[in-house]
Amino acid sequence: MEEVKKLALLGGGVVLGSLGGKLIDNVLKVDTGIPGFNPKALVRPAVLVGASAAGVLMLKDNNLKLIATGVGASGVLSGVKTFMKKDLLNGLADFSGLGEAIPTDVYREPINLSIERYNPDLPALNSSSANASSDSYRNSSAMIEGNEENAELAYIEII
Q: pLDDT tens digits for 50-109?
């Protein structure tokens, strides 16, 4: 249970640092759309990391130290975002189910699922050939039944 508590305190510190960082950006009116280097954007990570370092050094309670560490982690994340122009936490909503994991517009190749009916070209059976085949069957079965002493020969004829 102690591990879950530590993780929750660190996560809470990251959330508090993120909220504090947004407040700092609103107070300083930082424009994130400016291309290139923006010195005002460096204030947020510097303040968060400085507050974290002060909290870890001056606080006596371990729980508050974990929250301060989370604030410092938030400062590091915002610093990476400032320098690299990429958010490290950008794709987390896709894995947790909070965001939309599957894109709504997906190109799919049209597939024809209908199957043509199979019509074999077989010759039509005449009634005389059908009668002849049934007569030959009757004759062969009568021959087998009547010839019990040659049962071995009858068995060969069946196969």
A: 999 999 999 898 888 989 999 999 998 888 888 877 777 666 555 545 445 555 677 777
Quick one: three-class SS letters along the chain? Answer: CHHHHHHHHHHHHHHHHHHHHHHHHHHHCCCCCCCCCCHHHHHHHHHHHHHHHHHHHHCCCHHHHHHHHHHHHHHHHHHHHHHHCCCCCCCHHHHHCCCCCCCCCCCCCCCCCCCCCCCCCCCCCCHHHHHHHHHHHHHHHHHHHHCCCCHHHHHHHHC
127: its two tokens: 């009634």
CB contact set of 58 (below 8 Å; sequence gap of 6+): none
Please tell me the distance from the alpha carbon of residue 130 to that of residue 137, in angstroms, as a whole number: 11
